[in-house]
Amino acid sequence: MDPACAEAVELARAEAVAMAGGDVVGEHLGVVAEADRVVTHRFESTQPGYVGWHWSVTVVRAARAKAVTVNECVLLPGDTAVLAPEWLPWEDRVRPDDLGAGDLIPVPEHDPRLEPGYTDADKLISDIDLRQVVDELGLGRERVLSRFGRIDAAQRWYEGDGGPYTDIAKAAPAPCSTCGFAVPVSGLLGQSFGVCTNERTPFDGTTVSWDHGCGGHSDVQIVPVDRRGAGGDEPVHDTVTLDEVGTH
Fold it and tell me: What sign for the dihedral angle of Cα 205, 211, 215, 217?
């Protein structure tokens, strides 16, 4: 470590004070050698809102020169500094419950979840009558769900609250595939999913997998008392099992 640069504590402090003000530059925290005749002095930052930060002032000395000069002065975070969360693109920050009335969520031009509803429609369907037929059949959407989009949605639904892995699904008396309240969805997704229509369950109006289930299954019924064997039926004697009686 260059002795002249290491001893230039007051020079480094003066630079930090000139940049930030004397009331926010605290005690000297140490010095670090960066290279030949290049060292960095660190000073505590007492500025409100910057707990754990420090002023870093790098000083240098040219070869065969006696004078030490300041190279840079910056405010840096330390190990205990409070930092802002890592920046994320908006498409990764937005959550489903962030969408409110009047809000718009733009779809990327090349979203892998979507594909053209009909390839180059303006070129292939230039006939007005043909385009009218296409619109009447419901084929006029410019983009439809792609194979990737179907797989992405299916995996998300299957691993969510409407899938088979939740506690309520594991304790269900029977799967949704046998429930009269489950209505199939159209398309390929209908092979694995339906929509619950039972208003007495938390899944009403939501997508559920066919192997999902809950206590609101359509086959769950109240059995009348006279069908439970408690309405005057003759007692049933077990003539098969042997009771073991201990001896004393």
Answer: positive
Query: Bridge partners of 115?
Result: 144
Sketch out the chain's domains with CATH numbers: 3-77 (3.10.450), 147-209 (no CATH)
| Three-class DSSP labels, 108-154 | CCCCCCEEECCCCHHHHCCCHHHHHHHHHCCCCCCEEECHHHHHHHH
Cβ neighbours around 71 below 10 Å, total = 15
How far is the C-alpha of 214 from the C-alpha of 218, rounded, in Å?
10
Residue 190 burial (CB count, 10 A) = 13
The two structure tokens encoding residue 175: 């799967």
Sign, Cα dihedral of 87, 92, 95, 101: positive
Placement of tokens 């937005």 in the chain: 94
Give the per-residue pLDDT at 91: 74
Contact 54, 43 (CB under 8 A): yes
Helix (H) or strand (E) holding 73: strand 69-77
* In the block, residue with structure tokens 């007495």: 200
For residue range 87-104, list pLDDT tens digits in order.
Answer: 888 778 888 777 777 777
How far apart, in Å, are the Cα atoms of 108 and each of 99, 105, 113, 143, 155?
Answer: 17, 10, 10, 12, 21
Rg over alpha carbons for the chain, rounded to the nearest Å, is: 37
Name the pLDDT band for 125 (thresholds 50, 70, 90). low
- Which residue is associated with the tokens 């005057």? 232
